[in-house]
Design brief:
This protein has helices at 16-25, 42-48, 64-76, 99-105, 136-145, 161-168, 185-199, 221-224; strands at 4-12, 31-37, 54-63, 87-92, 95-96, 124-132, 152-159, 175-184, 208-214. The protein is α+β, with helices and mostly antiparallel strands.
């Protein structure tokens, strides 16, 4: 144990139910899902006699050992490696905002932190905030006060919220906003702290915040200059 990852699964929406059921059988209920769409050209779809495909995108936090087990099941049970089967990948987490948020994302599983990885020695971080729907401004006002320039929002739906309510003692809505904020590494802690204090679990937003290492960027030069 020790390393934590954000696992992302992207599959055809029609097949999404099988993937969600597999993850729940793995005793992992806290997940966040959103809809997406494929990017195949319409001419190619028409030639093949296919319709444009809607995608299901699922996010969850996993430990390394869990990922290895899930990967085998995705390959052998759901044949994710087959053409058109979909994709699942992991990205290392660099930090999580607060012990309660960590316990929520891991559903109270025992976790032992290991030493920081050199991969996390990066110039920028991607701060991800998961908040109750309708609280974007509350989150972004807190983030901007701490130096954030802006963010990108996608709508998602959480699963496993009933279990989370029992564990955390607070009411958690299923409808979520996921807010992505790219920040300088030295600003990341202050941004996460501000969000936790002003839009955290004690607020109406009930925000959970964590960060991922960003190895390189384009488009931030003017802001940095």
């Amino acid at each position: 144990m020790g390393k934590l990852y954000l696992m992302t699964t992207i599959v055809d929406r029609k097949a999404g139910k099988k993937y969600m059921e597999l993850y729940k059988k793995d005793e992992h209920n806290v997940m966040f899902s959103s809809l997406g769409s494929g990017t195949a050209a319409s001419e190619m779809l028409n030639y093949l006699g296919l319709e444009a495909t809607e995608k299901l995108v699922v996010f969850s936090v996993r430990e390394e050992e869990e990922w290895q087990s899930i990967k085998k099941q995705l390959q052998h049970k759901l044949h994710i490696d087959a053409p058109g089967g979909g994709i699942a990948f992991i990205i290392p987490l660099s930090s999580i905002g607060g012990k309660k948020a960590l316990q929520f994302l891991l559903e109270s599983h025992d976790y032992q932190k290991e030493e920081e990885s050199t991969l996390k020695d990066t110039a920028h971080e991607l701060v991800i905030v998961i908040a109750n729907q309708g609280n974007i401004e509350l989150v972004m006002d807190a983030a901007r006060e701490a130096g954030a320039y802006g963010g990108t929002v996608i709508h998602a739906r959480g699963t496993g919220m009933e279990k989370a309510e029992k564990f955390m003692g607070v009411s958690i809505a299923a409808e979520k906003e996921m807010i992505f904020i790219v920040a300088k590494k030295e600003q990341k802690n202050e941004i996460m702290k501000a969000i936790m204090e002003k839009a955290g679990l004690e607020s109406r937003a009930k925000s959970i915040v964590f960060s991922l290492p960003v190895t390189d960027t384009a488009g931030l030069r003017l802001i940095e200059d």
